[in-house]
Every structure is written in C-alpha cells, then in structure tokens.
Amino acid sequence: MHQADATQPQQALSSVLPIVGVMGSGSKPLNHRATTLGKWLGTQPVHLLTGGGGGAMESVCAAFASVEDRQGNIIGILPGGVNESGYQPMHGYPNPWIEIPIRTHLPLSGAQGTDLASRNHINVLTPSVIVVLPGGAGTASEVRLALQYGKPMVAYLSSRDEIPCLPAAVYVEPVFDRVKDFVRSNIV
To answer: CB within 8 A of 64, min separation 6: which ones?
Structure first.
C-alpha cells in the first residue's frame, strides 16, 4: 500500500458532517421559525434531517436548500407501508426538498410514536443534536424518545408553548449557540 493510500480513509472521515435533526409540525409551516432555523443551518457544516413531510419539516428543508454553497444535504426519514403491491410510500412524502430519502416500511405514528415500530426512533437516534419546533403528538413522542435515549435537544418555541425537561428559547440566537456547541462536541 502506498503512503498516500494509507491517509485516504482519515481524510474521508474528517469531512463527515454532523447531522442536525429538526422535529416539528407536519401540518403547520411555522414559516418564521422554520425558515430562520433552516437558513442558518444551511450556513453551517451540517446535514439536515427531518421526517420528510410537509408543514415545518418542508419549511425548514426549503430554507436550508435555498442557501448557496451549503455543505450539507437534506435527509428525510420517510413513512411507508407494504401491501400486496409491494412498498407504498405515504402520500405527501417526501417533500420536494429531500435530497436523501430514507424510505421505511414504518407508518406515521402520532401518539404511538414511541412504539418500537415507529420511524421516530430513527428520527431521534440519527442526529447529533435535535431542534424541536412546535408540533403535535408525533413531535411530542420524538421528544419523549430523545429524552429516553439521552439525545441533546433544544426547543425553539413561542412564549405560550412549553415542553417540560427541555432547554427552550423564544429567540433564535440561544438556539444557534446550543446547536453550535453540540455540533462542535459531536464532530465525527
């Protein structure tokens, strides 16, 4: 093996980007929050992971995609199912901004999002850090799973939203600071 060949894997590993997961509403776009967060994440050396659907997930993906010269890609963990015709993607998935679709046989889970047959486990276990936006039962189940798995999280909520046990910010700058700290400490 040549000397240059021996250094190849180390160089490849140093270019691996951390993944930031954004969990939030699949129906409400939360435009200001999701767009602000997505544009900022697009300027960072990270990949973005969402559930790949509409609402806040689509808004954050679109904003991330709008950043010129970004380093990261947009990953979507997609729900689906299997029937006599084979694999069936869930209607509305993926949103048009997903660049790396991870198709699963796992359905949308809502309140049952902590069940072992939920794709929420993948949504939570894959990223280095999770940013929580306002959402419904699915988002709440992702928060429960992240707490169970000890995943670092920060919530970017309005003043009337509360998720117990999470560091929360009403303004985006503290969210940026926490994400930067987690990303720095989890560079692969």
So the answer is: 38, 39, 41, 42, 48, 70, 72, 74, 97
What is the C-alpha separation between 177 and 172, in angstroms, rounded? 9
Four-CA torsion 170, 173, 177, 182, nearest 10 degrees: 50
Burial class (CB in 10 A: 0-12, 13-18, 19+), 172: middle
What three-state secondary structure class fits 66? coil
Backbone CA torsion sign across 106, 109, 114, 115? negative
Q: What is the rounded average pLDDT of the residues 60-69?
A: 97
Selection from 46, 51, 7 nearest residue 27 by Cα:
51
Sole residue written with tokens 């901004």: 97
Q: How far apart are CA 44 and CA 182, in angstroms?
A: 13
Q: What's the pTM value of the predicted model, to 2 decimals?
A: 0.86
Rg (alpha carbons) of the chain, rounded to whole number: 17
Residue 129: both structure tokens together: 């850090």
Residue 149 phi/psi, 5-degree rounding, is -85, -5
Interval 115-127: pLDDT, tens: 887 899 999 999 9
Q: Encoding tokens for residue 70?
A: 């970004």
| Distance (Å, whole) CA 41 – CA 21 | 10
